[in-house]
Amino acid sequence: MNILVVDDDNLVCSSLKIILSADPDITVVGSGSNGQDAISLYKTHNPDILLMDIRMEQMSGLDAGEIILKKYPTAKILYLTTFLDDDYIIKALHMGAKGYMLKQNFESIIPSLKAVHMGQNVYGDEIITKLPNLITQNTATINYASYQISDKEYDIITHVANGLSNKEIAELLFLSEGTIRNYISLILEKLNLRDRTQIAIFYYKNK
């Protein structure tokens, strides 16, 4: 798993490289100190995951993330920051970042990277507790039928929004995991969304 690290604090950057390099499954392919570095280094190294801070001089991690995701839609970006600002969290979610973690939870960094590499989205406990309130602010209810979402699909959307895995949803609905994966793929297509996190955001925005 190739990781690109971008953080404007040299000590943090060095510490992250030491922590990550201790895992035999992880290779740190490069490091930078601002958003502009992130963009150029991403093009050079094409990492599996970009581990990036948010507040940085010259260009923020959020601005860099938007540019990278527009050019590389499948890019996996995990934000690692000290800031729990609502606006930052919302922007990271909407742009399609794969995770948002606080630096003090250093013991969760490697497990989070591995989860993102496997296709999951990861958020620290502090972020998860804020999500429902953040997402429902200033939103309006929509008619799911206008998206041709069936009752079964709506049930699955609800379970995804509540954080259930495919296996858990399958057990609740007495279906196979493969069937649930197919349903989720169809839901993503109908709602023009990218991943499970965006399904949850869509649900809470329109609840």
From TrEMBL:
Keyword Transport annotated:
no
One biological process term in Gene Ontology: regulation of DNA-templated transcription
Per the record, the domain of life is Bacteria
Protein name, UniProt field: Stage 0 sporulation protein A homolog
Q: Which GO terms describe its molecular function?
A: DNA binding
Q: Which UniProt keywords apply?
A: DNA-binding, Phosphoprotein, Transcription, Transcription regulation
Classification via SMART domains:
HTH_LUXR, REC
The residues covered by the Response regulatory domain are 2-118
Checking InterPro entries in the record gives: CheY-like_superfamily, NreC/VraR/RcsB-like_REC, Sig_transdc_resp-reg_C-effctor, Sig_transdc_resp-reg_receiver, Tscrpt_reg_LuxR_C, WalR-like
Function of the protein = May play the central regulatory role in sporulation. It may be an element of the effector pathway responsible for the activation of sporulation genes in response to nutritional stress. Spo0A may act in concert with spo0H (a sigma factor) to control the expression of some genes that are critical to the sporulation process.
Modification type 4-aspartylphosphate: residues? 53
Give any Pfam family that matches: GerE
Domain named HTH luxR-type is located at 142-207
* Organism this protein belongs to: Anaeromicropila herbilytica
